[in-house]
């Protein structure tokens, strides 16, 4: 697509499924499609993102259009789940921590403010809990903890 969300070197629409060259040879175990951006989780715990980088939702520290690229800010973290929202992104690491980045309006990132984050940042509100699932919506986020509690934040 025009905003790079398909992950190919051209920005044309694609009428049939086409393999993303940048991810060939990598074992991808989960994907999530947001608004003109995507996340892919590799078996080694690395997260790849691509598409329209507005508000920092790709996690690369900039606002640029991007072909699939590993999020270096999460290197050293073993990510086990990802979710791409409207203008923000979420990840869970193996220790049960939640990380968020992108558009912060209405508190959707969970950091107690409305600032955008160009790089993934750990959500400290979950410091004493283990999160097992997350979902990023358009203006809000949801998490499930290991004890079955459901927590929501945003607008």
Estimate the mean pLDDT confidence: 93
Shape: globular
Q: Helical stretch count? A: 0
Strand order of the largest sheet: 1-2-3-4
Whole-angstrom Rg = 15 Å
Q: Unreliable runs, pLDDT <50, ≥5 residues?
A: none
Spatial gap, N to C terminus: 29 Å
How would you spell out the order of helices and strands? Answer: EEEEEEEEEEE
Task: Give the fraction of residues assigned to helices.
Answer: under 10%
Count the strands? 11
Major sheet: 4 strands, antiparallel
Task: Decide which structural class fits the backbone.
Answer: mainly beta
Question: Strand share of the residues?
Answer: 35-45%
List the helices and strands and how they pair.
Layout lengths: L27 E6 L3 E6 L4 E5 L14 E5 L8 E6 L3 E6 L4 E5 L14 E6 L8 E6 L3 E6 L4 E5 L1
Compact description:
The chain is mostly beta strands and 155 residues long.
């Amino acid at each position: 697509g025009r905003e790079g969300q398909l992950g190919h070197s051209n920005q044309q629409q694609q009428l049939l499924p086409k393999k993303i060259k940048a991810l060939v040879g990598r074992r991808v175990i989960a994907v999530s499609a947001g608004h003109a951006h995507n996340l892919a989780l590799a078996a080694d715990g690395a997260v790849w993102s691509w598409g329209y980088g507005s508000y920092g939702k790709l996690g690369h520290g900039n606002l640029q259009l991007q072909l699939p690229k590993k999020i270096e800010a999460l290197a050293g973290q073993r990510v086990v789940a990802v979710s791409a929202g409207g203008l923000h992104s979420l990840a869970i690491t193996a220790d049960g921590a939640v990380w968020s980045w992108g558009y912060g309006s209405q508190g959707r990132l969970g950091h107690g403010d409305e600032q955008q984050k160009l790089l993934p940042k750990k959500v400290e509100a979950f410091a004493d809990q283990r999160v097992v699932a997350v979902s990023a919506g358009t203006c809000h986020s949801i998490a499930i903890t290991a004890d079955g509690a459901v927590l929501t934040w945003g607008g």
